Amino acid sequence: MQDIIDRFLSYVRIDTQSDPNSKTTPSTEKQWNLANELVYELKQIGMQDVSIDNNAYIMATLPSNLDKKVPTIGFISHFDTTPDFSGTDVNPQIIRDYDGGDIILNVDQKIVLSPFYFEDLLQYKGQTLITTDGTTLLGADDKAGITEIITAMEYLINHPEIKHGDIRVGFTPDEEIGRGAHKFDVEKFGAEWAYTMDGSQIGELEYENFNAAGAKVTISGRSVHPGYAKGKMVNAVSIANEFISILPPVETPQNTSGREGFFHVHHMKGEIEHAEFELIIRDHDKEQFERRKQLLLDIVEKLNKDHGDCISMDLNDQYYNMREKVEPVFHIVEIAKEAMEEVGIEPIIKPIRGGTDGSQLSYMGLPCPNIFAGGHNFHGKYEYVPVESMQKAVEVIVKICELVGEKGK
Fold first, then answer.
1. Has 388 been annotated as catalytic?
2. Secondary structure (3-state) at 216
3. Which partner from 57, 91, 158, 296 sits 20 to 30 angstroms from 42, CA to CA?
4. Which of the residues 175, 176, 198, 395 is marked catalytic?
């Protein structure tokens, strides 16, 4: 346990926030700080073929110790953290033998992590939790996944009696801004399939995710003195409000769950002469996804007729549901499920209400389900991770490697 804690803390204390406004890869120079540390550590534990390219994509190999050929598999995590909340000067707190009560994250700011609001805490009573100090995120998304992969590889290196085929590991930048897989060299990686260690609570096993699109709507208005504006003013802010009001009011993130899709307006600014807003579309069902996109196009057409061609929209697909690519090779999900069961974990198979590098990688030719990394409340000051969950994730990785070595498929 202490090895996992020490490794994890060393990663989260390095600021690796990505930047959606940057055009470089990685999007921030500071991501190199952890990337270079990971390369050094992979070499130190005995991994082979360790490489880092000009975009900070890291790959390494644990060679097979079998006398037969079995599929090469991989494990992937990302080292950037979200730009949604500060990742600077992360100061983790360790809560041993958690008693099931409130956890004071920050006395001065009266920030409390409470099971009254975050009920999942109660399932970790008696365990060791790592939390924030209330002023930053923690970075378990996805430095917990990196911790688990490297710890599992080190364990396999130190226990050659556990037989396995070739294992590839990959660590990527910029996942949090949707670009983690963009420059991932699937051919170089050379695995038949892989698993991202990027899920949340213990037991999660996911092979479905949203179909996703993003839109930027721009509205050109005309400013006229309001006392003499009748028939002349075109108020861009009012038209933006009209557009948003046409969207189904119950189909928002705060009103949906499970496989229910949504529209989500996440940025908006404007004045009479000019307004713009950005929104995302999410839906697990491909046909419903297409209908959602068509609704946006229909709204633009209607409002342009009503207000005189003042609206333009940039609408682009972002990623697709990986289920389409994973179902034909569903044994890779079954292997992960069996591995969890063999180490005493009840699998929680459910769709991801979000995206994952695994989605893009699956469409790039690398089928890639997602496995829990253990953290909760990602992207904010209430983030925490139970160390026991990270331990179990290590066991799952080791068991998957062992099962593929035994089954040969």
1. no
2. strand
3. 91
4. 175
